[in-house]
Amino acid sequence: MPHRRLAPAVVLALIVPLAACTPEPDPEPGPAATALAADLTDGVFDGAPVDDPDVATEQLTTLLGDLAAFPREVAATVVEPADGEESGDGPATRDVELAWSFDLGEGVDPLELATTTTLTLTDPAEGDDDAQPAWRATWSPALLHPEATADSVVTVERTQAARGDVDGRGGQPLVIERTVYRVGIDKANLTEDRWQPAAEALAAALELDDQAGYVQRVLDAGAAAFPIALTIRQADEERYNTQGLRGMEGVLLQEDTMPLAPTAGFARAILGGVGEATAEIVEESQGQVEPGDVVGTSGLQRTYDAQLRGTPATQVVLTNGAAGNFLLGGRDAVEGVDLVTTLDPALQTFAEERLAGVESASAVVALEASTGSVLVAASGPGSAGLSTATVGQYAPGSTFKVVTALALLRAGLTPDSPVECTPTTTVDGREFRNFPGYPESSLGTITLREAIGQSCNTALISQAQTVSAADVADAAASLGVTAAMPEGQAWPFGYFSGSVPTEATGTTHAADLIGQGDVLASPLAMAGVAASVAAGRTVTPTLVQIEGAATPDAPATPLGEQEAAMLQDLMGAVVASGSSTFLQSVPGGGVGAKSGTAQFGTDDPPQTHAWMIAYQGDLAVAVLVEVGDYGTATAGPIIADVLTFAATSGWNAG
């Protein structure tokens, strides 16, 4: 039979079914590995091909425990088999390396974990002709760590570092760990009917300010709680009769340590306090402080808390119950760094004791003139916790006449220049007069030296046309008043350096010349005036010693040596023959001083701030009593006692 050629259409029809039998290539494992890493990162199995994703999600959350709160990233790398390794009749598999990275916060190295899992290529379900083989993973706690089981959980144990101390002049310890006793009711050792009477008895024995409030705290606390009524220093055991407290029903004294100053009130307004972090402090720390941490709550302890508290220890532990624990990572604690201040413990303590009986706000400040180091920054009990010494804002009264004198010296006067001291003088209809009891022998034409020595108001006000407000402000800056830090920098401690108008005229300018009007200063600023005169240059205070710390801007016109010498002459006259001759009896050499009285308020007669500044050798002191009599009468005896203590206690600025 002759061979017949098929038509082209018939040939194609025979070939097409043969092509349909060619198998599709296996899918790549990379996308499945990437999906697994993504689900491990966000903690929800909604993309990775795993069996029972809900169970996997729940178990991963439980396993991570404390770690779940830390940001993490998981990366997956498919390990391709070497040539010839993949063989056999079973399903194809690929090893996948998982790299976990947990961000444990600032200053802590990330926690890095490496594990391996396997992807298996599974066939499509039977009868599903459209499905393709797929790579699948099997969830297991071992994806996080080889030793992890279904009962495992990760804990992050955080332990605070030892807090740095606060030291004073010469490295003398100020705030260190000291023994305390936390006193409270141990409810677990009492029957419920005895909680209230025990709490009432303890509150009365401790003379708590809010006794009913403590009793209610005891009643509201849990049945096994230990509500603390008071924390007692070891040094105060006798005062609070701790032996007697131990014998009271339900009372427990729990020994502990706390960072404390030598006494409860020592430089409290400056150093500040330490206590449990408030919610606000925790929030502001951006993860560096956690609830329950002990932190600085005020003062220098708060300002330099990051330095003092150090870095906590962190341990990430895989807890396996009876099978034991595995340390996954973490870091050791880094102790806090000590803060060094310039405070002199003996001088500070004496100043605080001297102010103990002053009812109104008060302050004593002492500087080492040669360095500007703040040796004393004491605020009396009437200051009610405010650092009157450093941030108080008061009219400085006649102590400001030292500033006015410098402005006049720069205008051409000398200590011997004649000025007119009249009983009264009038500026723009306002009458100014001298203080009651001003000596008549110092009225009339007197020298500038005598005008400063006797504190004649009218003599200085009569020079109002000689110097402008800008001249006075410039002189104040030369003596450290109104000192400012460079733009963008803050004082390393709370400090009000003063405010002096630059454009005042008329009665305001006249009043400014005698330290009233709109002039304001803190006791520390006025101590800086005395220190500048003593040192012969502009002095600004230093309280904390921080390497590389910014320093105040220099004044436009620094104090010159010859100017300082003339001011020493004027302040010396105050003690030699002026209003403060009582300071001649202070041991230890010549004293220069200036008293001040500043009226304030609407009473008739007005109340007065009592001031005095003085220097002796390398020690410069300022005293303020917010409500007092005259500067010499109220502040004078205090400054005399401080100078005497410094001279007789062996204080040596060198």
UniProtKB/TrEMBL annotation:
Region forming the signal peptide: 1-20
Keyword Cell cycle carried by entry: yes
Domain (Penicillin-binding protein dimerisation): residue spans on this chain: 159-320
Catalytic activities: a beta-lactam + H2O = a substituted beta-amino acid
GO terms under biological process: antibiotic catabolic process; cell division; cell wall organization; response to antibiotic
UniProt cross-references to SUPFAM superfamilies, sorted A to Z: beta-lactamase/transpeptidase-like (SSF56601), Penicillin binding protein dimerisation domain (SSF56519)
Keywords: Antibiotic resistance, Cell cycle, Cell division, Hydrolase, Membrane, Signal
The Penicillin-binding protein transpeptidase domain, residue ranges: 363-643
Pfam families: PBP_dimer, Transpeptidase
Subcellular location(s) per record: Membrane
InterPro entries: Beta-lactam/transpept, Beta-lactam/transpept-like, Beta-lactam_class-D_AS, PBP_dimer, PBP_dimer_sf, PCN-bd_Tpept
Superkingdom as given in the UniProt entry: Bacteria
The protein's enzyme class: hydrolase
Entry's Gene Ontology cellular component terms: plasma membrane
EC code: 3.5.2.6
GO MF term (any one): beta-lactamase activity
Family classification: Belongs to the class-D beta-lactamase family.
Name of the molecule in the record: Beta-lactamase
Organism of provenance: Litorihabitans aurantiacus
